[in-house]
Structures are given as C-alpha cells and as structure tokens.
Amino acid sequence: MDNQLGSSTANMLYDIICISLIILAFVGGYQNTTLQGCTLLFSALIGFLGALFVSPLALTFYEASLGPSTGLVKILIAVLFGLLIGYSLFHILQVFIQAKETRTSLILSRSIGGLIMGAIMVVCISVLTTFTDQAMILSEHVKTEAHLYRWLDPINERTSTAWNLLKANVSEVTHKQ
Predict the structure, then answer these.
(1) How far apart are CA 14 and CA 73, in angstroms?
(2) Could you tell me the pTM of the whole model?
(3) Which candidate, 10, 173, 175, 168, places its Cα nearest to that of 160?
(4) CA distances from 48 to 33, 77, 87, 97 (A)
C-alpha cells in the first residue's frame, strides 16, 4: 500500500511539474506577445547579418589601432555589433508596432503568443522526457501511469528517433576522425 502511494505520488509529481511548466510558458508568452517575439527574432537575425558586414570594418580599425587581434576579439566584436544592431532595430520596430495596436489585436496577439510558448514548452518537455528515458532515469511505473507521459508519447517517439539519429551521426563522425 505504501509503495503504491509513493508511486502514484511520483506520477502526480511528474504531471504537476509538466503542467506547471506549460502554464508558466503560456503566461510568459501571453505577457510578452507573439509580435514582440517575432520582432525580437527578426531584429536578432538582421542584427547578426549586419554584423557580418560591419564587424570586418571594425576589426580592421581595431587591428590598425591596437595591433593584431586574437580569435576571441574577433568573435567579441562580431557579437557586440550583432547585439547593437539587433537591439536598436528591435526598439525602433517596437515604437511603430505599439502605435498601431488596438485593445482587441493586443489580446489576440497575447493569446497567440501564449499558445506558441505553451507549444514550445510541450516540445521541450518531450525532448527532456526522451533524454531522461534514454538515460534510464524515469521509472517504468511513471512511463505507464503518468497521464502526461502517455499524452506526450507520439512526440516522445519522434524525438527518440531524432535522438538515435543524432547519436548515430556523432559516432560516425568520431569514427572518421
């Protein structure tokens, strides 16, 4: 009886943790809105593409002023320019977006953002579950009795297949070296 109570508590704990993470992801996505997330992604992409063009000029200036640079300095200059361009573009776009948002579009945008972040969290939980399953951390009882584990099983199978392919590719690369 006591062992059964302990195992049902472990199943509930797994379900409670997963549901809590999904709710937190939804709330985070709702608060930050999808439009903000898309704008941030777009700004980061443009920022780092811009850094590809600007950082060689900055590196040339650096080397002319201070002498030869190391690999760390080159990476640091590229990352700093990428962040600077992306951050600036993000804030410029936010000014234009916030001026055009209505109350209805804001609620819809926030709800979609919550759903997207919730879906991303479901995939992340599935990947983590697959990892713990491959590492033999999860007990068989949790696998058969936890409600969310059974619900995530189709995603777990896909991530397990991807995990096995990744391990096969890694072992192939290490054998070639």
Answers:
(1) 45
(2) 0.53
(3) 168
(4) 23, 11, 11, 22
